[in-house]
Amino acid sequence: MNDTIFTVSLDAVNEPATPVAGFSGNYDLEFASVAGEWLPFVSGLNSTLWGVPNSVWLLDTSGADEHNKIAEIGGYSAGIAFDGAGNLFCPSNGLLDGDLVASFDAADVAWAIEEGPEKADQFLELADGSIVSLLEGGAADAVFDDAGSLYMLTAVWGGDLTMATIIKGKDYSGHGDYKYDVVGTGGPDAFWFNFLASGPIGNVYIATLDYPASITQVSIPCTDLDEDGYAIEGDTCGEIDCDDLDAAVNPGQEEVPGNGIDDDCDGNVDEPCFIRTLL
To answer: Are 141 and 28 spatial neighbours (Cβ–Cβ below 8 Å)?
Structure first.
């Protein structure tokens, strides 16, 4: 069986989807900007054989289905998410030695793309990237929010769904090998969920394949690492904390002249201090 990837026009309601590529065992699909061009990437087997290692591919939409292998992750499947700098993050599912979140530098991804589909066994492997965190269960989909935090769905087969996040800028040195926070859980029947790309901060959606299918907006908690009452997200979380690792820096503080710090988070460092002299 050759699974198919389709495009759907958001401007043409009730129009049939258009097939653009055949790709057996496809799992996750993500667009990323590389050298100013938006390109489609897909994770999956690209094979009808179950034992083939899961990989990330640059999707060929020309009709030839000559997909370009970018990185070999292993396991059954993997999520794909690109951060704002173009770095690739892949939460895995089904690795024999335990699941993990791997990342690959944008420059290495660009190299793998330039090699082209005609290359012979030249692609990135786990050893070429970095292990961001181990996972207690296999991962489903993943997405970055506008604040640069990575959200994932993970679960042990037959167990409960877990929504996990790696918060940008947070120090996870005390978390051992599992460098993330659990921000939500679901029942065992909720595993086959997928994230849909978020817009403004806090707009992360989950689509379920349950019957009937549904889409739910997830309420993302406000990030306040220094516990000063101000978060990095802004919007519904209130005024933006410009340094969430220093409780003495937030919009509620007064500016301290001469210390080289934007104490009150107004975008200005060391505003002039006017001294009134009484004669």
So the answer is: yes
Domains of the chain: 4-219 (2.120.10), 223-279 (no CATH)
Give the distance, in angstroms, between the CA of residue 39 and the centroid of all CA atoms in the same chain: 16
The tokens for 38 are: 């938006």
Distance between CA 142 and CA 197 in Å, rounded? 9
Count Cβ atoms within 10 A of the Cβ of residue 207 and give its class: 0-12 exposed, 13-18 middle, 19 or more buried. middle
Under a CB-based contact definition with an 8 Å cutoff, are residues 66 and 48 in contact?
no
pLDDT digits 0-9 by tens, 213-237: 555 555 556 778 888 989 887 766 7
For 5, 15, 26, 39, 66, the CA distances from 22, given in Å and listed in that order, are: 6, 20, 9, 16, 10
Quick one: tokens of 232? 């990095």
* C-alpha 136: how far from chain center: 18
CA distance 38 to 23: 20
Residues 6+ apart with CB under 8 A from 28: 42, 43, 44, 77, 78, 79, 80, 141, 142, 194
pLDDT at residue 166, as a whole number: 83
CA 102 to CA 129: how far, in whole Å?
7
